[in-house]
Design brief:
The chain has 331 residues and is of the alpha/beta class. A hairpin with a 2-residue loop joins strand 1 and strand 2. Helix 3 packs antiparallel against helix 4.
Length: 331
């Protein structure tokens, strides 16, 4: 799986946000770099502020706010107060803008979803003062919340981004269509909701309905033969003690865990030739009619993609990791 260059957060919140107003690099008032010049010009119907900035400054959290939860909420609400969204120079300064952005999305994990969603929407609104800055922030949200290789990937936080983009007048209909499709797929198979039903066919030719499968939990893995990452994930799942334990716990009427690998493409000969290399105690199937692809039943951003379902086929973990699955069964 390809690696993504990330600017890891420097505001780690290890002190429960009690002292976060002074925990980022050069963020106090005494360290602020004075703006050297200001020259407002009109370009592409947008005010472009030509200034020089050498740092990002966090807002000062009022000292009377001592509760760490409330401090976090104040911080995400006012996080960008000192950031100049008109300054296009900052687009090319990832050590300032992108670093501040990564710190920001890390802090979002410390506030209720409602507050996080409000902050995200306000951030995008603020970026709308300049077309290029708006596009840059959309690209950052997409990179960190949507990219399948991002460790910050979070579809639930990406949904308010997509909803806000849909309201923007700065994008063309063609540009919006890309994000509208992302939103459509993000709204499918959400955690806590019932996953889409589909038919799966075994090597024997027998076809079954996903909803008819009787299992306390079902781990669905979309995979391709010859995919190196799929092979790595298969080995990791096979050697995982929590997952092996769940596979062996059965009752008279229902198994504890069923693992299904599903091949969503059409090279059946290649898939059949690869089957002997797969774990014998898993279910291996393919999408005979390519229904999942043609109907966009599941958002398969990358191969492999993992989903965990309960016995009613409600989604427990969506597009998840082995670590998250192991933690679930350990608990």
């Amino acid at each position: 799986m390809k690696q993504v260059n990330l600017y890891f957060p420097i505001a780690l919140l290890t002190l429960g946000l009690v002292v976060i107003s002074c925990s980022s690099s050069k963020k106090t008032e005494s360290n602020r770099q004075e703006l050297i010049t200001e020259n407002n010009v009109t370009e592409n119907n947008s005010q472009v502020e030509q200034i020089s900035v050498d740092d990002f400054t966090l807002p000062d959290i009022p000292s009377e706010i001592t509760n760490s939860d409330l401090r976090a909420q104040y911080l995400v609400k006012h996080y960008w107060d000192h950031f100049s969204f008109r300054n296009r120079e900052l687009i090319g300064r990832p050590e300032i803008t992108e670093q501040a952005f990564v710190d920001y999305i890390n802090i979002l994990n410390y506030v209720p979803n409602e507050k996080a969603n409000e902050s995200i929407k306000e951030t995008i609104k603020k970026a709308e003062v300049d077309t290029l800055m708006h596009a840059h922030f959309i690209s950052l949200f997409e990179k960190y919340f949507y990219d399948p290789n991002s460790p910050f990937r979070n579809e639930e936080l990406y949904i308010p981004v997509l909803n806000q983009i849909a309201k923007s007048s700065l994008l063309t209909d063609t540009e919006k269509s890309v994000y509208e499709f992302q939103l459509e797929m993000a709204m499918k198979n959400r955690v806590g909701k019932k996953g889409n039903n589909f038919k799966y066919t075994l090597a024997s030719g027998k076809t079954f309905s996903f909803y008819e499968l009787k299992s306390e939990y079902t781990l669905l893995m979309f995979s391709n033969p010859g995919c190196p990452t799929c092979e790595t994930v298969t080995r990791q799942l096979s050697s995982s003690e929590p997952i092996k334990n769940a596979l062996t716990l059965n009752s008279s009427t229902r198994t504890m865990l069923t693992i299904i690998t599903l091949y969503p493409d059409e090279n059946l000969d290649e898939w059949l030739a690869h089957l002997p290399q797969m774990p014998a105690n898993w279910v291996h199937a393919y999408d005979k009619d390519l229904e999942i692809t043609h109907k966009n039943l599941y958002d398969i951003k990358a191969i492999p993609t993992l989903y965990l379902f309960d016995n009613d086929k409600n989604v427990i973990l969506k597009d998840t990791s082995i670590e998250a699955i192991e933690n679930f069964f350990n608990n």
